[in-house]
Design brief:
The chain is 55% helix and 16% strand. It folds into two domains: 2-74, DnaA, N-terminal domain (GMP Synthetase, Chain A, domain 3, 2-Layer Sandwich); 88-121, no CATH class. By secondary structure, it is α+β, with helices and mostly antiparallel strands. The chain is built from five helices and three strands; from the N terminus they run ααββαβαα. It has a three-stranded mixed beta sheet with strand order 1-2-3.
C-alpha cells in the first residue's frame, strides 16, 4: 500500500513539473536507487523527455523527491484510451459555397475535388 501511495505521489510531482504534453503521455513506473523510471507512449516523447530530464530531476529534487536520474521506457499501447473524434460535416452554407465555386471553374482537378468535397458532407 505504501508503495502505491509513493508511486501516486511521484506521478503527481512528475506531472506538476513536466510539460503538459509529456505529463499526459507518460506514467511513473517506479523509483529504484534514485532513478525514476517513466513509461512514455512513443519515441518522440521519449526523446524530448531525455532532453529535458536534467531539468526535471532538479525540479523534482526541489519538491523533496529523492530522484537523481530519469530512465525512459517506450511502451506503445494500442488502446490510447481517447475517443476518436466524430467526422466533421460541412454546413449548408459551406456546401453551397463549394458548389458555387466549382460551377465557376473550368474542368480541372480543383473543380473535381471541390465537387467531391461538397458531396461528402
Amino acid at each position: 500500500m505504501n508503495k502505491a501511495q509513493a508511486l501516486t505521489a511521484l506521478q503527481s510531482h512528475f506531472i506538476s513539473v513536466a510539460p503538459v504534453h509529456i505529463g499526459q503521455s507518460s506514467q511513473v513506473l517506479g523509483l529504484e536507487t534514485g532513478t525514476l523510471t517513466i513509461s512514455v507512449a512513443n519515441a518522440t516523447i521519449a526523446a524530448k523527455l531525455r532532453q529535458i530530464a536534467p531539468e526535471l530531476v532538479a525540479m523534482l529534487q526541489n519538491k523533496r523527491c529523492q530522484v537523481s536520474g530519469i530512465r525512459v521506457k517506450v511502451q506503445v499501447s494500442f488502446d490510447s484510451g481517447r475517443p476518436k473524434p466524430a467526422p466533421r460535416k460541412l454546413g449548408e452554407a459551406a456546401q453551397s459555397a463549394l458548389n458555387e465555386l466549382s460551377s465557376n471553374l473550368g474542368d480541372s482537378p480543383l473543380k473535381l475535388a471541390l465537387e467531391k468535397m461538397a458531396r461528402k458532407s
